[in-house]
């Protein structure tokens, strides 16, 4: 048994009101967002679904129950963030069980059985609010006595859950897909019991920045970002990486979400001599930037990260309006849009695990796996691996097994994610891809006019994350 404090010991010490009083005690913006080969199961695996939402499959390992509190936005304008995150997690559990994914993005409890272990998921809707996430996390720990917490698409919500619930109660927390690098990079929000398999903004920037510096002719860049933690993390990480690579930063500007007066700012970038711009935005702002860029006469190139289907749908529509239908690679060539980095998209990895993942995800949810799904698949895969390797369903023992773990089965391939011992952030390979018209075979399940091309570059896992001695790494576990 691990010597670290267990959930049950914590609850006994704190009592019923031990962390309940923490709800709502922290300030901050609750709307903080993010824009993240192996063998199949044995042939004798049996699958069954019953009325209580239980899915069973065969495997080997520990026995008992792991209760996981799941926190995702599954209603409202950004419910797709929570849906794809939960669907990815569902597919990770299903892959380990050798069954078809069956968990739905609905509040309540659902169970997936892997061998002799029941993974009980207590799904709660954060509504993309830090206050709501904190309250729900508190209730899951005190009322449901969960062994672990998983989730939060909002970086503000993830930080709040880490500092005011997970760390206070000693309950392991697998964050994701919240992408702000500070969650696992800052001494306040990182902790021995806080993990993240999902890719983050530093990984976006370190991959994209290296590509811009080493593979393009761009030597002068203007940085734009949304004025909250996600946008600032994108800009700050790009600034550090590009500067280290010898690219001159000619300016940077943060704007509110939904900002639309882009003509003047893009003119400022031209006057500053920018050859490229980086936009650290989500769907709330990025379309406005692209509209002005496409309608203007600008010579610089737009860089950044490939976003989810939501943003690609909007950007694809803008490109169709500007260039006419149908979109072709010839029309997109030389437009100055991309290439972009991607944390994960369904067509970036060719291995048996990813093939099974894509097939299962499409069959279950009617879409291809999107940006956040590899990280949350890997989160589930890692938890099951931790239970089986540690032989325990106790949260503290699972956390002990996760530290430094190389996750065996992931959509990016075998052993493709490793949790760094100095901050519990998993590093993994990133890719760079061009913007291309969506292929006919994916048009129904992707739903946007443009998609990532096949990878034009791969950035090794060892190069994607902030190193232990990096200027922005104040976490040291």
UniProtKB/TrEMBL annotation:
<keyword id="KW-0732">Signal</keyword>
<dbReference type="Pfam" id="PF13458">
    <property type="entry name" value="Peripla_BP_6"/>
</dbReference>
<dbReference type="InterPro" id="IPR051010">
    <property type="entry name" value="BCAA_transport"/>
</dbReference>
<keyword id="KW-0614">Plasmid</keyword>
<feature type="domain" description="Leucine-binding protein">
    <location>
        <begin position="65"/>
        <end position="436"/>
    </location>
</feature>
<dbReference type="InterPro" id="IPR006311">
    <property type="entry name" value="TAT_signal"/>
</dbReference>
<dbReference type="InterPro" id="IPR028081">
    <property type="entry name" value="Leu-bd"/>
</dbReference>
<feature type="region of interest" description="Disordered">
    <location>
        <begin position="30"/>
        <end position="62"/>
    </location>
</feature>
<dbReference type="InterPro" id="IPR028082">
    <property type="entry name" value="Peripla_BP_I"/>
</dbReference>
<feature type="compositionally biased region" description="Low complexity">
    <location>
        <begin position="53"/>
        <end position="62"/>
    </location>
</feature>
<protein>
    <submittedName>
        <fullName>ABC transporter substrate-binding protein</fullName>
    </submittedName>
</protein>
